[in-house]
Write a structure and sequence with these properties.
By secondary structure, the first copy, chain A, is α/β, with parallel strands linked by helices. Chain A is built from eleven helices and eleven strands. In chain A, the strands form two sheets. Chain A has a seven-stranded mixed β-sheet, sandwiched between helices. In chain A, strands 5-7-9-10 form a four-stranded mixed β-sheet. In chain A, strand 3, helix 1 and strand 4 form a beta-alpha-beta unit. In chain A, helix 1 packs parallel to helix 3, helix 3 crosses helix 4 and helix 4 packs across helix 5. Chains A and B meet through helix 8, helix 9, helix 10 and helix 11 of A and helix 3, helix 5 and helix 6 of B.
Chain lengths: 285, 285, 285, 285, 285, 285
């Protein structure tokens, strides 16, 4: 990944690197490798801002996310940092007052991570090495999950005395096919392997190591970036909408969505290119 | 399948053949084999009408659907035909006016294909050969999916510059166990094989070729046709209801549904036959 | 399991045995082995009461459920007993009147079985031997499903002329990853094996025989009982809430739930123990 | 109303007259005055077809509905006709079989009446004289309700031994502001007057007699027909969508709807006309 | 009301009197007049049991609820009693532990009051004198609300430092027509009068004094008790279902509900009585 | 209002003034009186930020909103400003591209106005003079609406060729008691008076002029600011939650919410003050 082009518009982030390995493809790296990419509040606020920016950036059509360094995607929350901010631990506030602080704190945290799901471009998450706690919350917000064979997964929150609250419990059961398995890993906080993640459908590819996984992700992102952005972004939107609605509601929403989308040039361009066997070039979206 | 009995009540359809390989079993064939069974508007309107008729036909208790000929279940939308009707492509209407036309057009199309899901009898879909685009929308409306080993599946719409809008994006994620896989195939429009379809749970049987798959489907349909229609049709209804409701709502709906259903003769007849080890014969429903 | 300690608070049940193989672990056995643990109304009412009691019992942190004896988890409804109560069969009441009786009867039955799902402690269900009909309804209410290799599963209700109405049709499709498979087994009422149950994700472990399966379940329950009850019970609650809500609603509910939960001592205790590498002892909940 | 222009496209209906009192305004009259406009199955099927046709007719922008003759909007279901078709009364079918017939019968009836709600053009319902039973189901599907001072309203179904099933119980509580009043009139089946209907908000205007009420409705419809059809039809759609969705969902749906709608010419035309104080003429929709 | 017949089946309640002023009519009186009918836990548990019993009692077709004595319907929670049980006030439990106790406590309380809403027979609530706090929660569970002119209403909970949690905030906005008014009275905890309650639609009748209000309620209940129980109870069920569902879902549920209900004798009996102008006598339900 | 104390923390806004007429009460004024307080994008973005700030400001417990000057609350969107930004009018972008821009534009606008609804403190909106278009969208986000007798209301959007998209169509039908009236004013865009707004429940008080209305609003806000913030803010949250959920869901959410809230000091403080007849002083929240 050494020859990637750094994206000038994304140089203000302290804990995140955004490069562009291929045209229209962005690679987001969580960049605190010495701390196993553990998340401070500063980091998760940046994480939210990056994905909001990517969502509106017409030069980006597909995104790859990974951790920086070889050891971890992320080890989750930076517990020392969390201890010192006083919100979750140690304050002497009135219980009702503290409940309000905690609610607002969790909401801000959820919103920051959830910005990846709301990003209108498809996001491919590459898990590798230590990928526990918040790593799962983040991965659940991606569209496609790929991992290295050495990935150590765990829904770790029960072991720090709390129910996971940044999204894993809301999203994971809707991503994989066995609730018995979901409850097992969420209640026991046990590790699970890349192979197990593949067999339950949490990830859809396992690669030899991080480098191979990132390469595969970039290749996949490049494929997506070559396609009609109207079609790709509409497909993401409609799939996400469908998760939280009945089929009848999704069908209606689809009618209204496509009523504008198919009037764009991408549709006739792609259709004609298909008939003429030429490769279409799509306008920015 | 040469000795099937043609069903007299279904002879008016131009593009669809309905035969009856066994008592109470109907076999619906999409019949434009020279065009890889591609769908014109005429065909999809017939498709909707056939399933509405089957739903109300008390001589039918289970339905098998396949494509006619060896090459394709269906190659999807007949693009040439679609181009010429002017709704999706080429009209000069005002944008808001065209948006209305497109919405109504998609709704009619969705309703026609969705008639298979609404059909009160169980439907077994046999996929084989080319099964792309609309083929997946259709298969998602069936109850049980079986395929031939040569099936070439693809959610193809992204490659014609649009998000799939006849139901795949609404239904597919609720049918299989890996959202990562769903997004992969929907966003990339790549082909996937019978084996892959089986491993993610999209189909539940793979057979050597189309003939074997149709035979297995007819055998399965015949099994269903031997059982209590009250029980079978109630089971289909309650499973479909459950997909779009909370567990609490489904349980309540089930109470109300069975309050009438178990008062029918099928229940006592089946119960007694079970105790007496005899084979029950159920009345038409 | 011979050396388990019987739980004194649970000795009033006629058809159910509750023992405690390990501290904070309860083992519930359905105890009509001569009748293949078939359910009479008396039994299901007791089943509901047991789980309501366990839910409020601060000396219990995890529950294992199995059938007594080697032959069956349960063969389902005790048909002879059901025939004699006149609600479902044989009464001469007015149709609307009987509809009301049937609705209320099903509701009471659903509520009794559903008490296992509502129980605030995690429940591990061990299926073994004959596990048909109501066995599936019950298993669907558990958090984690484990089985013996000899388990004979079937969603049997269609064969007695009715749609399953105690919860299988509402819950099963949300527990496993292939709707095509769900509809197959629910419509055909065919047997399926431990291996098949594992491959579709219905169970997450298969063991050689009942004894090994129960041992594994007790070990797993013991692991859960060692962890923070606030974390474990919160995780169960949030996962169950998530099944029936959109992601956005689950995230909000999670904020409100954890606003109180993380103010408990378990959170800081577990956090500190993690940092200090000591083993925490949690207060009763 | 004698000088209205009959609409040629609507002459095939036997029990319904459609005229056009003003450009782009349609007046639908239920036309069985000798039978107090009571509904046979033939009539309600025509009713459904008329509104489907009006929905797609670009020469119609607003609709007024009334009964023909002076005595009744409608006295509801034609009981004699209903008795003779054997679906609701008198058949000897198996209970489960008859339950299916009844369900399908009610669904067809609901769909026919509901076509008025689904009609994309605003519908003003003029109630007058006898307006009981089905009259309320119909009125609930309109957008705006106006009545004559002599109107005799009643939710009459309880007095024929059944819960109203064509929509009153689903819609009425969402149309008016007092559930205590709704339950009073629905449970007692008592008459209520025009003045009472006005005071609870069921109707929004009361006029001296039928003629004045129809004139007011036509004037209101004419006002609507002068406005942008894109704006008027969008407003109807979004208000109806809002009734059945959360505010958050409605807001999102509104974004997607208007994304196409405001690109139409009506928006810039109306905006410019407003600034220039001219009267815009909108294209057909 | 002195000549009412006490109902023998309801004599075991300590704080509640159930009499029968007319055949098939039950009158429930909250009976702690010296304490302004304030609620202890014992009382609310009895309240829940009474309505569960009434729901299943085929000799009861309509219910009237009032307070005993002239001074109050109820002054709400018995604060002294509540203080002494230690659940809400004064316990030293861990915050997470106490949160669980509070949740379970509120749930039990909600379920007891909500039993009135779940009661399958229509309930008419007569408010009079002091009717504050819990009085509003209770009234919101009734079907029809009537009051005496001296009633003093208030949603009082804000003045004891808490948000009302037994149902007022969930139900009141769905019962009346002005959210601005609802928020005013809920946020300020101010008193409002019988006249104000009438004008916003919270009650549908105001009578001179308690005696007149009870008489009117009994007369109304008697009217309901004369009608088909299948029709009356079905109407209550469908109206309550409609409150919490979309119109489309209610229509479907209605189809399934009436599929059994109209097969009962009440329907043909009422229909024939209507044609023959005779008074029908309905069987018990 | 001349003696109000300006709030130092809110001096950075260009188009909005925030003062504090009483302790814990904030008065927000939309401040473009020469332009009838019409909204530019700059203004609505400020509007969203103000309410986000107020929501987190523990020195504010209740908020009053009005327009500056005597002529208008607001005349709605500043059409000239909107024309010049090119998003809604005049751009030459591809239809699909422009659809995305419009969606994102509406979303930003909705979010800014909706910040008032999300503000955790109660908001009292004072309408006066010209109050059309966006004025209604804003008012619908307030908790309590009060107006001056000279207010000129109109849901004006249809007259500029579009369906209102900032929230009126989603919220208004849920605030008032007559859908017939809602559709009348939304479809015709006609003016309605203070008296009409009062009679349908849109506002709950009408005062002689703006000054009197603002005084009444400040008095009401002061009353709310004297009460327990835990109780008041919890009541707002639970009422808003209830609007978009079933009763069963609201009851559950209430349990979880109050599990923390009643452990705060406000509850015991208010309870004790009530018993001792003293006036409680609550801590900041």
């Amino acid at each position: 990944m050494s020859s990637t082009t750094a994206l000038p518009a994304y140089t203000s982030y302290k804990n995140i690197i955004v490069s562009s390995p291929n045209p229209f493809v962005a690679h987001v790296e969580i960049n605190r490798p010495k701390k196993l990419n553990a998340f401070t509040q500063e980091l998760w606020l940046e994480f939210g801002r990056v994905f909001k920016q990517l969502s509106g950036d017409e030069d980006v059509r597909a995104v790859v996310v990974s951790g920086a360094g070889d050891r971890a995607f992320t080890a989750g929350l930076d517990v020392q940092s969390a201890s010192s901010d006083g919100i979750l631990i140690g304050s002497q506030a009135d219980i009702a007052k503290k409940a309000k602080l905690v609610r607002n704190h969790i909401e801000e945290f959820q919103d920051s991570i959830g910005a990846m799901e709301k990003c209108e471009k498809p996001v491919i998450c590459v898990l590798h090495g230590v990928s526990i706690g918040l790593a799962i919350d983040i991965a659940c917000c991606a569209d496609i999950r790929i991992c290295a064979s050495n990935t150590r997964f765990a829904v770790k929150e029960v072991d720090i005395g709390m129910a996971a609250d940044i999204g894993t419990l809301a999203r994971l059961p809707k991503l994989v096919g066995s609730t018995s398995w979901v409850k097992d890993v969420c209640l026991t906080a046990r590790d699970f392997s890349a192979q197990e993640a593949l067999s339950v459908g949490f990830v859809s590819q396992v690669h030899e190591d991080k480098q191979a996984a990132v390469q595969a992700a970039v290749a996949l992102a490049t494929t997506l970036a070559d396609k009609s952005p109207v079609a790709v972004q509409g497909t993401k939107e409609l799939l996400n909408h469908g998760r939280d609605h009945t089929v009848a509601e999704s069908l209606r929403y689809t009618q209204v969505w496509n009523a504008a989308a198919v009037q764009g040039k991408d549709f006739s361009l792609a259709l004609m290119s298909g008939l003429k066997k030429t490769k279409p070039r799509f306008e920015k979206l």
